[in-house]
Amino acid sequence: MEIRSSTVLPASREPIELHTGDGLKLVGELALPPGRPPVATLVCLHPLPTHGGMMDSHLYRKAANRLPALADLAVLRFNTRGTSSERGTSEGVFGDGEEERFDVAAALEYAEFHDLPNTWLVGWSFGTELTLKWGRDPLVTGAILLSPPLRRATDADLDAWASFGRPLTALVPEFDDYLRPEEAKARFARVPQAEVVGVEGAKHLWVGEPYVRIVLDEIVRRVNPAAYPLPHEA
After folding, report:
1. Rounded distance, CA 54 to CA 32, Å?
2. Domain ranges of the chain
3. What is the mean pLDDT of residues 149-176?
4. Comparing C-alpha atoms, which of 60, 106, 52 is closest to residue 83?
5. Checking DSSP bridges between strand 40-45 and strand 119-124, what pairing results, if any?
6. Which uninterrupted H or E stretch holds 13?
7. pLDDT tens for residues 76-135?
8. H helices present in the chain, as ranges
9. Which backbone phi and psi does 110 adopt, to 5 degrees?
């Protein structure tokens, strides 16, 4: 069976709730490999909710649909405060990337409490800002940034990640609306352990199955290299 945009592969999927330090309940989902423990965990931080970003944004939905089966990864997705999706609406209101620090902490606490291994943050657009600003937690193995705008996240945040020392990979579309590969390489140069990967032909939203496959492959190559490259059939 060829893996297509709508393909949903076997996994153990369960709705979850996260509880923030400032008293909110966030809705989410955890997808686990079927019948075996995960080798690593992706905590997904979604694009800007005021522009339609949510836990079901297509890259994350497809990651949850494929990677537990194909790469033995746990995929934790959730709606940040005030964000809605088919799963439901998280309590609270949009905090412009500041109050969401409690949301990131709640997701990492959930991963730790449930003994999810080898936790990686995967941020997309607005989610990359949350990763850089609030993701420097001892539990975090590393981070992968998809279409980082570097707007809310400043050079000070990059310097702090440099000091944090954990791996950092930025996948930057050739035709991104906010930050393109050459500028990204200059901005991330202050993080010695950062790798910037320019993706030819891609745009900010990674629309199209060829770009989805590139993103998922690059994630797996760093998080579980033994499963790279991902098959195109299942």
Report:
1. 20
2. 19-226
3. 98
4. 52
5. parallel
6. strand 12-19
7. 999 999 999 999 999 999 999 999 999 999 999 999 999 999 999 999 999 999 999 999
8. 58-71, 101-113, 126-134, 155-164, 181-188, 209-223
9. -60, -45
Is 185 exposed, middle or buried (CB count within 10 Å of its CB: 0-12, 13-18, 19+)? middle
pLDDT grade for 165, boundaries at 50, 70 and 90: very high
> pTM value?
0.98
Question: 198 and 174 in contact (C-beta within 8 Å)?
Answer: yes
Tokens of 173: 């579309």
CB atoms within 10 A of CB 121: 30
Parallel, antiparallel or unpaired: strands 88-89 and 12-19: unpaired
Answer yes or no: CATH 3.40.50.1820 is held by domain 19-226: yes
Query: Ramachandran region of residue 99, left (φ > 0), alpha (ψ -120 to 50) or beta?
Result: alpha
- What contacts 167, CB < 8 A, 6 or more positions away? 141, 142, 143, 193, 195, 222
Are β-strands 25-32 and 73-78 bridged in parallel, bridged antiparallel, or unpaired? Answer: antiparallel
pLDDT for the residue numbered 166: 98
- Output b/e per residue, 147-182; b: 16+ Cβ within 10 A: bbbbebbeeebbeebeebebebbbbbbeebeebebe
Total number of residues shown for the chain: 234
